[in-house]
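[audit] Reproducing an earlier prediction to check determinism. Same input, same settings, fresh worker. If the tokens differ from the archived copy the diff job will pick it up downstream; this log only records the rerun itself.
[audit] input (169 residues):
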Amino acid sequence: MLWQRLHPLFLVLGVWLLAFFFANVEVQIEGASGWAASLPVTFRVEKHWLLDVLWGGRPMTGYHAWIFAFMALVFHLPLLLLWRWSWKLEARVLGCVMIFWILEDAMWFPLNPAYGWSRLMAKQVPWHRSWLLGLPTDYWTFSLTGAALLWWSFRRPRAAASPTESGGA
């Protein structure tokens, strides 16, 4: 039973480890230019109303389109390996994806020698266009949504009440 209770903790630690490794990869790929600003991407869409709604107003690049799709597939791979799917497992995967991207993005700053924590601010990070309480709004939105999805995915159904407890005969 203890291992079952520790499952969410170890899952989040595993997601953190993946985010740490991927943040290091992105530091190597992007260098001092965040959000693929200097990469030879196949396309870059700077302005579109869907980017404002779904992407926090950030540009959509070929790099980001492919890497976001790739990571979504990576997180879904265990469901294919086990040939199991349910709404709770899907919520768990989506919650992990959200937490992964927030952790990865946040770790990119201290791991990148050109940035560090001190440069994680609106005037230094133009690709994050919306800020709340000193952090990009996405950090708050996806942390809360991801945590809620994880909580729901691990929530156990309540035991059904017996007829005497529910006031029945």
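[audit] rerun output stored. Observation attached for the diff report: The longest helix spans residues 2-30.
[audit] end
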